[in-house]
Design brief:
Length: about 270
C-alpha cells in the first residue's frame, strides 16, 4: 500500500472480527519476524505485520528523512487509517519496540495495550546520543561495504556476537534466521540505522512518565543491559510492568517463543 513516500509491504492474518495486533520487527528483521509467535497465538487475534522502511520489500521514494522515527510513525498511523483500524494492540521488538513506544506516547488514542520486547526509550543525554551516532555511523560503513553476500553474512555473524544476544548463535534455527536477515539490502539497512537508530531518535524518557497505556516490558534473562533499562522504565511509568523471560537473551520471541506468546496472551487478555 502506498502512503505518501512509502510503499508498505504488509500482511493481514486471521479474522478481522478479532482484536487486531500490530507487530513491529527489529533491526534487520522483516515481515516474517513473528511468524512462529503468531501461529501459537492462533485465532485469538487479527495480525498486521509489515516491513519497516529500510527492510524487506517496503520501498521508500522520498529522502533520508523518510527513515526517521517521527516520519515512520506518522506513516504507520496513516496505514492504520487506510486499513480502517481505529484501535489495536501493539507489539514491538528492539528497534520496533522503540518505534512502538514512540507511537504509544504520541498517539495514545490508537493503542489499547503495548508489549515492548527488549526495547528502550532511547538515550537520555545529548552526549550519549552523539556517541551512539558515531558508533552507528561506523557500523553503517561496514554495511555499505557488504556488497557480496559473504560480506553481509560475516557482518551478521559479528553482530550476533554481542553480549545482549546471549546464546542466540547456539539456537538450532539460528542459520535459518540469518538466511532471513540476508534478504535485506545492506545499503537500506544503513539508512535505517543512521536515521532511526538509538542515537538519532528523540529521547522518550521524560515523556514516559505521562504514559497512560498499559505496557508489558519484556527482557531476556541473559540480556543484562535491557533488564536494567526496563527496570528503570517500570519505575518511571506506573502503567508499565516488567517481566523477565528465562532462557532468552535480547531476541526473546525467537529463543523462547512459548514464554513470549504466553506472556502476550496473559497480558492482553487481562482486565486493565
Amino acid at each position: 500500500m502506498i502512503i505518501e513516500n512509502y510503499q508498505f509491504y504488509y500482511s493481514l492474518i486471521g479474522n478481522p472480527d478479532k482484536p487486531p495486533i500490530l507487530f513491529l520487527h527489529g533491526f534487520m528483521g522483516n515481515i516474517d519476524e513473528f511468524d512462529k509467535a503468531i501461529k501459537l497465538l492462533s485465532e485469538e487475534f487479527y495480525y498486521l505485520t509489515l516491513d519497516l522502511p529500510g527492510h524487506g520489500n517496503t520501498k521508500v521514494s522520498g529522502g533520508d528523512d523518510c527513515y526517521t522515527m517521527t516520519n515512520t510513525a506518522y506513516a504507520l498511523i496513516k496505514l492504520l487509517d487506510e486499513l480502517k483500524i481505529a484501535k489495536c494492540f501493539l507489539v514491538g521488538y528492539s528497534m520496533g519496540g522503540r518505534l512502538a513506544l514512540y507511537l504509544a506516547l504520541h498517539f495514545p488514542q490508537r493503542f489499547l495495550k503495548v508489549v515492548l520486547e527488549s526495547a528502550s526509550p532511547g538515550l537520555p543525554t545529548e552526549t550519549e546520543r552523539l556517541e551512539r551516532i558515531k558508533s552507528d555511523t561506523q557500523i553503517g560503513r561496514k554495511l555499505i561495504r557488504s556488497i557480496a553476500r559473504s560480506d553481509f553474512a560475516m557482518f551478521l555473524s559479528n553482530w550476533y556476537n554481542q553480549a545482549i544476544f546471549g546464546n542466540l548463535k547456539n539456537h538450532p534455527e539460528y542459520e535459518c534466521m540469518v538466511g532471513s536477515r540476508l534478504q535485506n539490502i545492506p545499503q537500506e539497512l544503513d539508512k535505517s540505522l543512521r536515521f532511526m537508530g538509538t542515537g538519532c531518535q528523540p529521547s522518550l524518557w521524560e515523556k514516559l512518565q505521562d504514559n497512560t497505556i498499559p505496557m508489558l516490558l519484556l527482557a531476556g534473562e541473559y540480556d543484562e543491559k535491557f533488564r536494567y533499562i526496563n527496570t528503570e522504565m517500570a519505575k518511571i511509568s506506573e502503567f508499565a510492568q516488567i517481566k523477565i523471560i528465562s532462557n532468552a537473551g535480547h531476541n526473546i520471541h525467537f529463543e523462547n517463543t512459548l514464554a513470549f506468546v504466553e506472556s502476550i496472551k496473559d497480558f492482553l487478555s487481562a482486565a486493565s
